[in-house]
Amino acid sequence: MHLSPRIPTSEPIDTHQKALQVNLDPRRYGTFAEIGAGQEVVRWFFRVGGGAGTIAKSMSAYDMKVSDAIYGRASRYVCRERLQAMLDYEHKLNLDRLKDVRGDTTAFFAFADTVSARNFQGTNDCHGWIGVKFQAHPRDDDSQIIIHVRMLDNEAALQQEALGIVGVNLVHGAFALNHEPELLVDSLLDGLSTSRIEIDMIEFSGIAFRHVDNRLMSLKLVELGLTGAAMFAANGDVLQPSEFFHRKPILVERGSFRPVCNVNLDMLHCAHEKFTQLPSVQGKEVAQVMEITMRNLKAEGEIDLRDFLARADVMSACGMTVLISDYFQYYRLASYLSRYTKESIAITMGAASLLDLFDEKYYAGLEGGILESFGRLFKNDLKIYCYPLRDQTTGEMTTCENLEIKPELQKLYGYLKDRGGINDLDNFNSDCLNIFSRDVLCKIKQGDMSWESMVPPPVADVIKSRSYFEYQAT
């Protein structure tokens, strides 16, 4: 099972044609409510002609008191809570007013966005929440798509233009591609590029998307390059990174998680214990995530969706938030995380991974090589916590104290260690040192039930109940 590639069309549909197609569909009728960057989306539907047959109402409520009076108070004005209030209010209004009159022939919708475009000083975070709530067919139950975008253009006018295009793509996709959600995701940046817009969250809900797994759609965002990373909670709900990480210290464990083993949880537990002792972290809620890279998911070629869902489910069974990223280099991961918090950031890894971190082949593409990469990685006082490795033959322990670094890099390593960038984890559970996920995976495939004692009980339950990782009941 693999993610479907985009099916090319002989004549790509541009923004003008998409808006016109919607306007010429006699079933579609609804409201556009836009706050923060002008009425950039509805403008397309007015401009192409035929808008009177599609647009019940177009509005903006820039003044906070006016917006509150219509949609109720919100903690912030550019947030998911405000977007949902807008969608619910406008869609219900259309149904209450019009369903008795034209409900048999009309599929109603409400489009909304709440956006922080570039301000006059150019000092704000340029992002927005965009959504459409709609009936796929007349008299149908509601369906909904919500996305979060980051606008990357340096000029407000360009940001507004990009917002208009992605909004039209969303509306058109909701109506024309709701039965093919992967193609819908792929169409969101038609007429744009990832240098202009990043889509870091998408959520499908409602009757038209009852079979959609939003975790797979998150994976699709990263695979297509629409974002560098996507997240979902243990219960499968998609998360928006800036809201999840907002003002929190962050602790990340990277791995393959095929499956999650006791050693993975011990590594995270030990690092959390050390991390929370830092003065900058004490008393604060730490955002803990398990991260898996696209490189890891594609290690055997194309992404296998069942394998991905197996990993996601065992991480979720441990109550963990999952981060999928395209940031193989750790300095890129650190840069991504520091975008969302000013608090401390830590990464925990095994001794073997720490040794790989000092392999210069991974930095050949950087002008400054390994020095540049480490400058980026540690520039915000990031901490690395190293979990020991025990040789299964000799019993010898490898820690960050005796890691065999190349002679020419030993002074650099010593400097990073002395200043607290690299830290040993000496609070480990020795029973976990003999556990390796590759061995557990082999035991599962071979029917050797000793693997059960090497993973958390909820993980064993998930593997057995869903026959993951080629498990077969005896």
UniProtKB/TrEMBL annotation:
Superkingdom of the source?
A: Bacteria
Name of the featured protein? Nicotinate-nucleotide adenylyltransferase
Supply the source organism for this entry: Rosistilla ulvae
